[in-house]
Known about the structure:
By secondary structure, the protein is of the alpha/beta class. It is 20% helix and 20% strand. It has helices at residues 29-36, 51-60, 64-67, 100-105, 185-214, 241-244, 271-278, 349-359, 400-416, 425-432, and strands at residues 5-11, 39-45, 109-113, 129-130, 146-150, 221-227, 245-251, 260-262, 266-267, 304-308, 318-322, 326-331, 378-382, 445-449, 462-463, 470-474, 481-485, 495-496, 501-502, 507-516, 526-532.
Amino acid sequence: MKRPNILWISFEDTNPFYGCYGDKVARTPNLDKFASEGCLWTKAFSTAGVCAPARSAVITGMYPTSIGAHHMRTAHTNPVAPEVPTPYSAVPPHYVKCFSEYLRAEGYYCTNNEKTDYQFESPFTAWDELGPNAHWRNRKNRNQPFFAVFNPCRTHESGMWKKNCPEHKFDPAKIKLPPYFPDTQEVRLAMARMYTNIELSDAYFGGLLKQLEEDGLADNTIVFHWSDHGPMPRGKRWPYDSGIHVPMIIRWTGKIKKGTVSEQLVSTIDLGPTVLSLAGIDVPAHMQGQAFLGNQKKAPRKFVYASRDRYDESYDMVRAVRDRRFKYIRNYHPELPYNLWVPYLNRHPIMQEMWRLHAEGKLEGPQKLLFQDKRPVEEIYDTDKDPWEINNLAGNPKYKKEIERLRKALDSWMDEVSDMGDIDETVMVRTWYPNGIQPITAAPGFIPICEESPGIEPAGIENKFKAPVLLQIYCATQGASIGYTFDEGNFPSWNLYTGPLRLPGKGRVTVRAKSIRIGYKESAEKKVVFKNT
């Protein structure tokens, strides 16, 4: 079977402000054309309203709350909050992998250009290429199937800051504002920058599709477009739809009917399992996402789920469940105000404008929602009638059955995924990093199997055996992945070890290997030389 190529073009911090989603202001000709050639999902949602937790779910197929990746920004010591138990990498269960490894094991050439942000260091075994030059065009064998990821960063929320987008291309007066934003010039200018950055990213998107056409690969490449979460206050960092509702468009020539629109619920945690399904690779049983295309497609979801925990400096715990119409949100800290101190958020021009007006007592109606000093324990919204989630129906007896139904769904999900939000972050990190020290992956060992050595003793540094020789590579760290190479240069390409290597019949060969488990430090590199006769 000829496996399909798969291309991901993901944007950052983007709700579906596209023409193909009905936005009258947007100028997205390439995305609109792309949607006319494939399927557009109207109800696609992220697992979190912020980058790293959301992306940890995408790359592993596991909820961030299930693998300890739910707190935002773990890789560095925060200078204004040094008491937070960072830096650390999340250490998922030993069976959790970056799903691209399953593709590599089946012969795919996997590239990422170049965003990772997984709450753990990207293991060197996850990608054939990771960096600003990574591209499907770099594979040596043009018949090798590829999985290529491109992630232009232009639409990140920081693109709405004036210094990062000094010239906008949209008329601020024509922009429709969310009802919880004040109607001021500064707010409109920030949104004009957002639309400008989407337009520029649309052009980048079109350029990649053109390269596919130039390479004669368009018909055998399944192309995905999606975003990780939304960009604006009361959106990014929150499980409201403005934080987790994302675009999802897929073109699969000859398989997906052109111009299709699907209202099926999908989650970004489903992306990895869906790619594996399309590639004809068994989806691992531990994955919590589910395929929505391909031969392993599951029944449509009844619910999608989202979370919010410590984001940067400030702790919180919010959980949410949504069906096709109703959203239920549970605040575990109802005593807290909505606006917690997050300096990066306060750099957002819309946030600065809202703080100014709040201090002057000039916010009105829904504009005050984000500035409440305490929260309800529960929130429920009818998103059909109230798409901006302004009118909390939790106290309305008419919706008692809906609340009970969604409350039960949320409890069941939290139990099923063993939600780690109940664990203090300090305690969680201590279990991973005994005495505050990050564990190190064990160095690999080389086990020759041949006439003189039946696979009982490790190889020495210099070895001489009679061909044929098979070589097993072993690592004592549970769940570790192993990379190997025959290159002897300073910048080798690392192959993913999947089974015994057959060494060349005669002559000298050098084998190098190192190991990595997600969340651990990489092992030391080991090298052996074989002189076979």
